[in-house]
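Re: that chain you flagged

S.,

Sorry for the slow reply, it's been a week of failed gels. I finally had a moment to sit down with the sequence you sent. For the record, here it is as I used it:
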Amino acid sequence: MKKKFLRYDAYAGKSIEEVFTADELKGASVLTVEQTQTCVFYNTGKGNFVMKPLPLRAQLSPVYTILVTDINHDGKDDLFLGGNFYGLKPEVGRFDANYGVTFFGNSSDGFDYIPPSASGLFIKGEVRDSKEISTKAGKIIVVARNNDALQVYEPAVKK
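Prediction finished late last night. Pasting the structure tokens below so you have them in one place:
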């Protein structure tokens, strides 16, 4: 394919038949993606779950970690999402629109976006994991980034 298309823009917008020959397509495996949104699944009991996509802010970049905790101490589960992915060809760009996405749980089993300035959670880089740790001073959030130092946060939001 590198010989046929030197740059991404050379095959962008082309159909699969324009990119591959009929012989190449004969031996291809066909896979189907049904859902690409970042979602939550609510357990309704007896092995049944209801899927609900998260708001738009959760859809802007790949998500690799979701921490469920009560950030604002209101008794409802809140979510902290981290992600991004830089391992793409330069001509395609990076998936880097996630600086740590925080959602507060609301009374209708949904989530409301909280900007980093209000949550105190602002992370640059490729986030791969997050954990909440209890300390003598209270709970903190530790965020692991790919090829980078850990970041530690005490959420700025207080009840």
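What I noticed first: The chain has a mean pLDDT of 90.

Talk soon,
D.
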